[in-house]
Amino acid sequence: MNSRSYYLYIGALAITFFGNGLHSIGLVWLIYNMNSSVTDIGWFFIFSMLPGILLAPIAGVISDLMSRQKLMIITDIFRALLIIVLLILFNLNLLNLFIIYIVTFLIGCFDKFFFPASSALLREIVEEKELFKANSFKNSAIQVGLIFGNALGGFLIAIVGMNAVIVINLLSYLLSAIFIKFITSNYFPLRKQKINFKLKESYSSFSTSLREGIAYLKNKPSILQFVTISASLELVVRSMNILLLPFLITILYLDSKAYGLIDTAFAIGSVMGGMTSSFFLKKIGKSNFLPLNLFVIGISFITFSFSNNFIIPFFIYFLIGFNLVQVQSFVTSEIQKQVKIEFQGRTHSSIHFILSIMAVIITPFISWLADSLSLRLVFLLIGILVISSAIWSIYLIKSKLILVSTKSN
């Protein structure tokens, strides 16, 4: 894992998510300043999620048919071009909600090609025994990128304006592409096959590969059970994104500064969780690692529901970030180990597809619950659901419905 290629890979991801953080903060700020409408911001997030449903399986097929390294570079370049379009239109005072939504959707499309390819590329440059540690540091790098992207985005808007945010976002994608260019990979499974982009031939090639991927997953029930665990994590993430701000304002009577600090606590927890995950995995043991982390997340949500001041939410969000990244690293590593390398792209893309559907379903459902019930009760119910997921994971591991690798990480 101490290879030059791995560090270039980590650097590229950190820079990419730094750009994503800037993009999100900058465009949300723009949208809100156009109409002061929370509904408009909601549509922004819906447009960012739609590509996950429409393109994830196809993106995985492409990442298995061509160089994952080249695919990541291409997506970085096209995302940079879209940011250039935003920059020009912004300076010509022609930017409107429709254009922002379309650009957001297109960037999301390229994201859905980038991320399955990046997961598969990691498997190429890191040995199997190092995967858990590699994924842990990868997740930490992503959180570091987001922390600086979110923090600097707000700071730059206040100090030097939106132009600087757009330009730095543009440079982040170009720098990521340069880092990826110098990664060395010795894996060439299907890359000599030329992808024919004629409609009929490409459809036949993609559909055949997708059928093979689905058939492969059907014979891997352990992976499907890991996906159910990932679905519970999706519930956690969406709930945190939707419920935190109204809880702080309407229940604790705190302001946006508190919101920013608590969100930062989550990100710092994620970084520290990623850095220490290998240590805790060895101490706790693989069979106990997943259930214990899920229990802590569930109890944290329940504790949060009884919060009466700033301190408890700050500490709880740090703890959730710490444990959530450990579960994500563990689940990702186990899936990577149990999937043949030539099926990595399709598998990860299919999982992204399932979780994107979950996100679109969960987001309005949680919003409806928050409007219909007490916010404290919603946090309490989510905590109970996550604890139920922890109990379910114990059953799956004990009954060997989830296969946990015995090789050390």
TrEMBL record:
<dbReference type="Pfam" id="PF07690">
    <property type="entry name" value="MFS_1"/>
</dbReference>
<dbReference type="GO" id="GO:0022857">
    <property type="term" value="F:transmembrane transporter activity"/>
</dbReference>
<keyword id="KW-1003">Cell membrane</keyword>
<feature type="transmembrane region" description="Helical">
    <location>
        <begin position="351"/>
        <end position="370"/>
    </location>
</feature>
<dbReference type="InterPro" id="IPR022324">
    <property type="entry name" value="Bacilysin_exporter_BacE_put"/>
</dbReference>
<feature type="transmembrane region" description="Helical">
    <location>
        <begin position="376"/>
        <end position="397"/>
    </location>
</feature>
<feature type="domain" description="Major facilitator superfamily (MFS) profile">
    <location>
        <begin position="1"/>
        <end position="401"/>
    </location>
</feature>
<feature type="transmembrane region" description="Helical">
    <location>
        <begin position="260"/>
        <end position="281"/>
    </location>
</feature>
<keyword id="KW-0813">Transport</keyword>
<feature type="transmembrane region" description="Helical">
    <location>
        <begin position="43"/>
        <end position="62"/>
    </location>
</feature>
<protein>
    <recommendedName>
        <fullName>Major facilitator superfamily (MFS) profile domain-containing protein</fullName>
    </recommendedName>
</protein>
<dbReference type="InterPro" id="IPR036259">
    <property type="entry name" value="MFS_trans_sf"/>
</dbReference>
<feature type="transmembrane region" description="Helical">
    <location>
        <begin position="288"/>
        <end position="306"/>
    </location>
</feature>
<dbReference type="InterPro" id="IPR011701">
    <property type="entry name" value="MFS"/>
</dbReference>
<feature type="transmembrane region" description="Helical">
    <location>
        <begin position="235"/>
        <end position="254"/>
    </location>
</feature>
<feature type="transmembrane region" description="Helical">
    <location>
        <begin position="312"/>
        <end position="331"/>
    </location>
</feature>
<keyword id="KW-0812">Transmembrane</keyword>
<dbReference type="InterPro" id="IPR020846">
    <property type="entry name" value="MFS_dom"/>
</dbReference>
<feature type="transmembrane region" description="Helical">
    <location>
        <begin position="7"/>
        <end position="31"/>
    </location>
</feature>
<keyword id="KW-1133">Transmembrane helix</keyword>
<keyword id="KW-0472">Membrane</keyword>
<dbReference type="GO" id="GO:0005886">
    <property type="term" value="C:plasma membrane"/>
</dbReference>
